[in-house]
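Bug report

Summary: C-alpha cells for Oxalate:formate antiporter differ between web form and batch submission.
Environment: batch mode, default settings.
Steps: 1) Submit the sequence below via batch. 2) Compare with the web form result.

Sequence submitted:
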Amino acid sequence: MKKHHQDIRDLIYVHLNQTDQYVISHGIEFAEFVSTFSGTLNNLLLLEHRFDDADFNMHTLLEYCPVERINKLAAEDVYGYGNFCWIDFIEEDVLNELTGQEMAELLYLGHHKHHLRLPFYNKLGNRFVYLANDDGWYNKTYYRTFKDFFQLFSIVISHKLGGLRVEKSLLGIRKKRVYPPVNKEILLTLTPLIKEGICLSLRDADHQRTRIEIPIWVLGDFANMDDMYEEYLQISRDRSHAKIIFDKKTKEWKLNVK
C-alpha cells in the first residue's frame, strides 16, 4: 500500500518517545531537516546510504559526508535510497577514536534502526541520529535535545502549508505563500498528545477567508506507517482532537484543543 513520496508531503505523523530521546515521524524529509538546521549541521557519518560523493574513513571503514557536501546530499533522491541512516560528528579525527564496541553499536543502529544504548557519544558530539526507511515515509530520529525537534516541526508545518497552494503573480511567476513558523509554545502545549502519536493533516486543512484551520488527530503509537495511514483514513472521518489555526489578519498561530 506504500504510496509514492509525492503523496506524503501533506500529512505529518509524529510520535515522541521521551525516555529514549527519539521521534518516529512520517512526512518530514531529509531536505526539510537540512533546510531547518542549515549552517549548524556537522559532518554526517553514513551508516546506510547510496551517496556516491562521500569520503572514506579508514578506521571505521565507513563513508561520511563532509559539511560542505550536505546540501548536495539533500538535493539527491534520498527517498530512493531505501535505507538512509547517519549520525553527525564534529571532525574526522574523532572517528579514529571510536572503540570496537562503539563501532558495533553504530552498525547495529544502521541495521536495526534501534539503539543498544542511547546513541549520544561525547567524542562525536552528535546532536542527532537519523534512521530512515524510504526517507519521509518512516523516520526515526534521536535528538540530544528535543528543542531541535520542536524547531523542525514548527518550520516544516509552515513550509508545507506554503507549498500546498502556489499562487501566480501578475507576471505569471508561480510563487509559494510564506507563513511564519508555528510558535514553539503551541507545539510544546501539544507535547502530551505528541507522546501518544498525532497526525497533522494539511490535506484536510480548512482554508477560510480570515483563517486556516489544520486538524490534528491522536492516532497512537505506530512503527508501521501503512498501519498508521489506515488508521488516519478511519479517524479522519471524525472530529479532530485539536486544531492549529493561522489568523490571516494578525499573521499569528493559535491552538484549539477539543
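Above is the batch result. After comparison, the two runs are identical; trailing whitespace caused the diff. The helical segments are 30-36, 70-74, 92-95, 100-112, 146-164, 184-189, 191-196, 225-235. The chain has two domains: 29-135, 148-257.
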